[in-house]
């Protein structure tokens, strides 16, 4: 602080700095006469409506990968759940242990298959955990809008010619990238812990990523949209909590819809997270789905498109007060 | 140096108004923050808004830089209408906002490059330009440090550099020295003068420091309660504000000799309240001994004496009839102000 003040207060080194600046600001041109007229000529600026979108997205991603603690923290919860519910308190063992020993061999597998669509509850849960991290990453992606408002960066972005829609979409895209990367790590951890990979196919895995992209895009748009006017992180946290738990528990992420009471089944049917899980399980585990893959994709694509549309519209409406 | 002088010549040819504002109004619900301001800024001048907290300075700047939509009125910036062509307005002006807006987690250099990207400036140009600007605000040594390690003064200078990245002809500076220590303030003043003299920029700044407006601005508009109370050059304003204020304490029981004091040629106005004379005078340093001598010559005692140069308070007392007061600032603003001050101090 002191050093800096002394530096800014001393004027002895000033002429030097001024002259270099003056020279360098001029673009290199042939004649000295032209040099003067070209003084501080601005370059051609990119005026495409999408300019700055990647710069804003990359800014958030850079902050994220430069700080691996954040990634690590977001992995703790799903991995603990995988260990706790998938391994230690394995839900399927409750079912199999209640089967009388006199039952014919294979009864347990048949029952498990009818519940989970697979004989491995752990694999079932692993798919759910991928949706879980996507949901939570998307929710906290909305928080970064609040922080940007709070710390003033939002105003900086808004005072540049970047399109309002790009400001919102950059938040969505960074959240989608983070969600997909985090979900991939969960997938790798699950495989390491014993997720059944015998049904994996190239098309299946690619399809599952397409599904994850769509659900991440829709959910991120939803949370960005809800945060777009807010500069109050407490309200935003309340909104996240209000939405996250129902979106998670009123879905097939942790338990099959079949064992839910009928009203909850109705809610789960309206929950886009259910369609994502349904599709991911069909694509990765070869389970018979609750819905057809076509329906899953249509619902997810519709969800993503509508919410992205609304959040772009709101960013135009609301970012300039 | 000689080449720069010839630039001054070529640039000082007939100037037009680069900012035209007519009857601009902003209402926040029932609160009228800006109640119809009109003014023009000529190319190449430093124009200042001087007013207390909550006067509507930032609101005006935010409308002109299209961060806020005005309720009514019109403004043209660099030839573009703020309502019809906000993107072009943003492209052609630079903004140094009141709050710190840099990204704390990035380095100073990364912050400027990010700004350049947001203006669509190609990296081939923005990289050398960012270096120049960092050198201009004397941050070259710290450019690869995270902004979270910067002092308040360094942050302010970084904001200034970011505001210049798009080669603006017109720069908006909202309270550029708020919360800075004296040395950094002097440095910021130096840059502002340099931008005008060497880069021929037009500057619109706001401040609530009278001395700052006085020493930097070619023209000042005094703004209070969302209205322009007076506009003119610093000299014109000072003339209307009146001279120095001398306060002389005497014994309350002593006879009132106001009329005698008023006869001193430097004294312009005398008021007595309880045991105090409140005297307005030109050249207070010379007037005060004369006043002392006069009071003593009447065989009376001076219990205390103080001399005040015209302050913002005095200006308000003169121009608006009310003293500079703490405006009620809303919660949000208090917070952002506090964050700004906090970071400025760290
Ligand atoms: N977003 C806002 N919502 C409601 N009131 C606001 C908002 N921004 C500013 N104000 C109010 O408008 C008035 C002018 O504020 P401002 O322009 O920030 O003043 P200044 O910059 O001169 O200190 C203040 O009374 C302030 O509380
Ligand atoms: Mg202000």
Characterize the structure shown:
The complex is a heterodimer of chains A (321) and B (346). Chain A contains 15 helices and no strands. Chain A has 321 residues and is mostly helical. The longest helix of chain A is centred in the middle third of the chain and has 30 residues, at 121-150. Chain A is elongated, with a radius of gyration of 26 Å. Chain B is an alpha/beta fold. Chain B has two domains: 17-237, P-loop containing nucleotide triphosphate hydrolases (Rossmann fold), CATH 3.40.50.300; 242-309, 2-Layer Sandwich (Alpha-Beta Plaits). Chain B is 39% helix and 25% strand. Chain B has helices spanning 2-11, 57-64, 86-92, 108-118, 123-136, 152-163, 182-197, 210-216, 234-241, 258-262, 284-297, 312-320, 331-345; strands spanning 17-28, 31-42, 46-50, 72-77, 80-81, 93-96, 170-174, 202-207, 219-224, 227-232, 244-249, 267-273, 276-281, 304-308. In chain B, strand 1 and strand 2 (31-42) form a beta hairpin. In chain B, helix 4 crosses helix 5 and helix 9 crosses helix 12. Residues 1-14 and 323-332 of chain B have low confidence and may be disordered. Chains A and B meet through helix 1, helix 2, helix 3, helix 4 and helix 9 of A and helix 1, helix 3, helix 4, helix 5 and helix 6 of B. The complex binds adenosine-5'-diphosphate and magnesium ion (MG). Adenosine-5'-diphosphate (ADP) binds at residues 28, 31, 33, 51, 53-59, 327, 329-330, 333 of chain B.
Compile the SSE list and pairings.
The complex is a heterodimer of chains A (321) and B (346).
Chain A: H1 2-9, H2 14-25, H3 32-37, H4 53-65, H5 68-88, H6 91-97, H7 107-116, H8 121-150, H9 153-158, H10 164-192, H11 202-227, H12 233-249, H13 262-270, H14 272-285, H15 293-318
Helix pairs in contact in A: 4-10, 5-8, 5-10, 8-10, 8-11, 8-12, 8-14, 10-11, 10-15, 11-14, 11-15, 14-15
Chain B: H1 2-11, E1 17-28, E2 31-42, E3 46-50, H2 57-64, E4 72-77, E5 80-81, H3 86-92, E6 93-96, H4 108-118, H5 123-136, H6 152-163, E7 170-174, H7 182-197, E8 202-207, H8 210-216, E9 219-224, E10 227-232, H9 234-241, E11 244-249, H10 258-262, E12 267-273, E13 276-281, H11 284-297, E14 304-308, H12 312-320, H13 331-345
Parallel strand pairs in B: 3-8, 3-9, 6-7, 7-8
Antiparallel strand pairs in B: 1-2, 1-4, 4-5, 9-10, 11-13, 11-14, 12-13
The structure holds adenosine-5'-diphosphate and magnesium ion (MG).
């Amino acid at each position: 602080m002191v050093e800096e003040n002394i530096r800014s207060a001393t004027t002895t080194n000033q002429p030097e700095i001024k002259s270099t600046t003056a020279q360098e600001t001029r673009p290199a041109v042939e004649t000295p006469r032209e040099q003067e007229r070209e003084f501080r000529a601005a370059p051609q600026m990119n005026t495409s409506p999408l300019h700055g979108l990647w710069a804003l997205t990359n800014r958030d991603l850079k902050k994220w990968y430069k700080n691996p603690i954040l990634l690590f923290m977001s992995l703790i919860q799903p991995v603990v759940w995988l260990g706790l519910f998938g391994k230690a308190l394995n839900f399927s063992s409750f079912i199999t242990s209640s089967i009388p020993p006199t039952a014919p061999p294979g009864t347990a597998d048949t029952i498990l298959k009818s519940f989970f669509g697979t004989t491995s509850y752990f694999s079932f849960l692993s798919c759910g955990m991928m949706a879980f991290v996507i949901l939570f990453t998307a929710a906290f992606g909305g928080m970064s809008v609040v922080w940007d408002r709070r710390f003033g960066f939002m105003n900086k972005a808004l005072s540049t010619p970047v399109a309002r829609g790009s400001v919102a979409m950059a938040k969505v895209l960074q959240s989608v990238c983070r969600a997909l990367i985090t979900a991939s790590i969960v997938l790798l951890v699950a495989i390491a812990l014993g997720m059944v990979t015998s049904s994996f196919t190239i098309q299946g895995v690619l399809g599952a990523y397409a599904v994850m992209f769509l659900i991440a895009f829709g959910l991120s748009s939803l949370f960005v949209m809800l945060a777009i006017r807010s500069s109050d992180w407490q309200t935003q946290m309340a909104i996240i909590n209000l939405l996250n738990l129902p979106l998670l528990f009123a879905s097939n992420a942790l338990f099959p819809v079949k064992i839910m009471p009928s009203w909850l089944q109705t809610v789960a049917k309206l929950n886009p997270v259910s369609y994502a899980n349904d599709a991911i399980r069909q694509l990765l585990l070869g389970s018979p789905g609750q819905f057809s893959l076509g329906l899953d994709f249509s619902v997810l694509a519709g969800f993503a498109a509508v919410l992205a549309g609304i959040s772009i519209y709101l960013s135009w409406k609301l970012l300039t007060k | 140096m000689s080449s720069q002088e010839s630039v001054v010549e070529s640039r000082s040819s007939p100037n037009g108004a680069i900012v035209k504002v007519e009857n601009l109004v902003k209402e926040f619900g029932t609160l009228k923050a800006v109640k119809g301001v009109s003014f023009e800024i000529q190319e190449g001048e430093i124009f200042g808004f001087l007013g207390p907290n909550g006067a509507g300075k930032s609101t005006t700047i935010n409308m002109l830089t299209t961060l806020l939509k005005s309720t009514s009125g019109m403004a043209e910036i660099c030839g573009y209408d703020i309502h019809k062509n906000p993107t072009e307005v943003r492209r052609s002006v630079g903004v140094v906002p009141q709050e710190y807006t840099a990204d704390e987690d990035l380095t100073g250099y990364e912050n400027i490059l990010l700004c350049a990207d947001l203006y669509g400036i190609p990296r081939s140009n923005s990289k050398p330009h960012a270096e120049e600007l960092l050198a201009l605000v004397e941050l070259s040594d710290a450019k690869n440090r995270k902004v979270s390690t910067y002092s308040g003064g360094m942050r302010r200078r970084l904001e200034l550099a970011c505001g210049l990245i798009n080669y603006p002809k017109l720069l908006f500076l909202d309270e550029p020295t708020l919360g800075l220590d004296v040395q950094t303030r002097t440095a910021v003043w130096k840059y502002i003068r340099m931008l005008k003299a060497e880069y021929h920029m037009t500057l619109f700044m706001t401040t609530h420091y009278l001395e700052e407006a006085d020493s930097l601005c070619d023209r000042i508009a005094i703004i209070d309660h969302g209205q322009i109370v007076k506009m003119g050059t610093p000299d014109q304003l000072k003339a209307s504000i009146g001279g120095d204020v001398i306060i002389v304490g005497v014994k309350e029981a002593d006879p009132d000799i106001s009329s005698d004091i008023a006869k001193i040629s430097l004294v312009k106005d005398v008021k007595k309240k309880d045991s105090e004379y409140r005297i307005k005078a030109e050249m207070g340093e010379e007037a005060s001994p004369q006043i002392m001598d006069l009071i003593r010559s009447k065989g009376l005692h001076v219990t205390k004496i103080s001399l005040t140069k015209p302050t913002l308070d005095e200006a308000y007392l003169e121009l608006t009839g009310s003293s500079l007061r703490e405006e009620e600032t809303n919660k949000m603003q208090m917070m952002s102000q506090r964050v700004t001050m906090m970071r400025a101090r760290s």
